[in-house]
Each structure stands twice: as structure tokens, then as C-alpha cells.
Amino acid sequence: MWRKVKWGLRIAVLLVVAAFLHYTLPQRDIVLITGTYNRLTTVGANWLFYATPDVGTAESSTTRDIRFIEAVRPNGKVSVYRNEDTGWIWPPYFKYDSSNLQAEAGNLKSTTATPQWVAVTHYGWRLPFLSIYPNAVKVKAVAGPDVTLIPWVSIIVLLALAFGLFMLRRMWLQLRERMIDPALEDVNNALDAADARADAAMRQARGVWRRLIDWLGSWRSKPRP
Amino acid sequence: MIGLVYRVGFGFIGLSVVYLLVSVYARSVQREKLEKRFESGDGEGDRDAYIEAGMKAWQHGLRRRLIWLVYIIPTVVVGVIIYVVNY
């Protein structure tokens, strides 16, 4: 029972971490940009998936003008990206050139007849149900829909995270070996010593008690011969 | 702009915590290494004196100074990200 709960918790934590990384790490889509526009958007309960109000492109926390980029993927399905500054805290993209990005995206607009394929770097998810959009970070013209893009940033970030976890574990083990275990040993030794003292005192007390009983016994009438 | 100030402040505090952890860890590893080296018969004379001398040498060595990279690397990374994303 406990084992199942423990494993369930572990898997839940792992899923949350994986989802978090999948949301935050950059991804690149190869698309045709078909449109760019601004739309007055009301941000409500889904505020977590929009820029915080203190960054340049988001003046108000409820209703704001958000830039969007519409695109078509090679398989014919559409993608819609928002284009907002990220601010300085999270996610750490430090993007403050949304206007420039919008202009670049507009410049790369094309049609299916004369396609100009574009790699759009973005983070985030498109969930129509919650009205949330991935945030485009960079656009770059590419040769065709089949070019291979190696996700260097994700590789480096994941390696760095793994290294950090490994070092944390090493540090913890070192701390335990050098500080906690010796301290526990000291405590154990002190407890043992205290135990021994208590035993000695007990023996002594028992000795006193025994002598008292014997002395009382000496007052008892002796069996007559 | 105020966000930038916050970010730099909190980043500095966070990195200082990391710096502290790493330097305590590195010192501990170095001491353990010296103890083992002494026990394998490398050092002569007093054990404590041997270890203290080794720690003093390490304190002024290059490997200890490399812990400053804890501050330098994230700053450089942030600079590179800002450049790559915006320019």
C-alpha cells in the first residue's frame, strides 16, 4: 500500500517536472507565416500563461492588446503564436523585442503557392480550451520544411540540470559522511555513556536496598533450634 | 525596469547561496583528500599540521578561485540569451 502511494507520488512529481520543462524549454516549428495582427485580449483565469503585467507589452492585467502570428505547418494544420515580452523573471528568455519580432514575422509572410518556410522558436502550449498560446521568441527563414534543427538549447539546459542534481546529491552525501554521521556517532556515544552511568547507579542503589533489607531481616525472630 | 532591479537582486542572493554551498562542499572534499593522503603514508610529522598546511595551500590555489565561476557563468549565460533573443 505505502509502496504504491510512494511510487504514485514519485510519478506525479516526475510528470509535473516534465510538463514544466516541456512548457518552458524552447521548441522550433517549421511553418509558413500567413498572418500577423493585434487583438484586444482579455486575460482572466489563464493569466499564468500570459506575460506578467509589469513587462513592456502588457500594460494591464485584464485587457491588453496582444500581437499574434498565424502560421500553417507543412501538414496543413495551423498554429497561432502570441508575441509578448517575457519580462525579467520567468521564463528566462529576457525577450523585449516583440515589436521587431512582429515586423520580421510580417516580412516573412508567404502563401502556399510561393512558400517561404520559417523556423519559429517558441515556448508554451496551444490549448484552445483555455485560450492559451505559445509565445514566439524568434523567427528565421529556412530552406525548406524538411531541414533538421538540433535543439541545442534544450540539450544544454537538460545537461546542466542533470549536472546540478548530481552535484546536489554529491554535496548531500558529503555532508552526511563528514558532518551528520560523526555527530550522530557522538550522540550515540554520549547516550551509551549515560546508559552505563545509569546502570552503575542502579546497581549501586540495588546494593544499598539489599543491605537495608538484610539489616531489617536481622531483626526478625530467628527460627529456634 | 524595477523588475530588472529585483531580478538582479534576487539572482545575486540565489547565486550567493550556491556559492556558499559549493565552497563548503569543496573545502570538505579537499580536507577529506588530505586526510586520505596522509593516511596512505604520504605526509610525515603531525597529522593536523599536515592537513592545515594543505588547506592553507588550497585556500590560495586556482581551484578554490574557480568557485567564482558560480557568479560568472550565469551572468554570461544571461548576457548571451539577451543577445541571441533580441538581436
Could you characterize the architecture of this molecule?
- The complex is a heterodimer of chains A (225) and B (87).
- Chain A has 225 residues and is α+β, with helices and mostly antiparallel strands.
- The longest helix of chain B is centred in the first third of the chain and has 38 residues.
- Chain B starts with a helix and ends with a helix.
- Chain B is mainly alpha-helical.
- Helix content of chain B is 84%, strand content 0%.
- The model of chain B has no long low-confidence stretch (mean pLDDT 86).
- Chain B is built from four helices and no strands.
- At the A-B interface, helix 3 of A face helix 1 and helix 4 of B.
Task: Name its key features.
heterodimer, A: alpha+beta, OB fold (Dihydrolipoamide Acetyltransferase, E2P), five-stranded antiparallel beta sheet, B: 87 residues
The end-to-end distance of chain A, rounded to whole angstroms, is 73 Å
Unreliable spans of chain B are none
How many DSSP-defined strands of chain B?
A: 0
The percent of residues in helical segments of chain B reads over 70%
Count of individual beta strands of chain A: 5
User: Largest contact between protein chains?
Assistant: A-B, 20 and 19 residues
Average pLDDT rating of chain A: 87
Which CATH class of the domain at 25-149 in chain A is shown? Answer: Mainly Beta
**What's the total helix number of chain B?**
4
The strands making up the biggest β-sheet of chain A line up spatially as 3-2-1-4-5
Oligomer kind: heterodimer
Structural class of chain A: alpha+beta
Question: Strand pairing plus helix content of chain B: what structural class?
Answer: mainly alpha
Average the pLDDT over all residues of chain B and give the rounded result. Answer: 86
String of helices and strands of chain A:
HEEEHEEH
Output the CATH topology of the domain at 25-149 in chain A.
Answer: OB fold (Dihydrolipoamide Acetyltransferase, E2P)
Q: Gyration radius of chain B, to the nearest Å?
A: 19 Å
- Rg of chain A is 35 Å
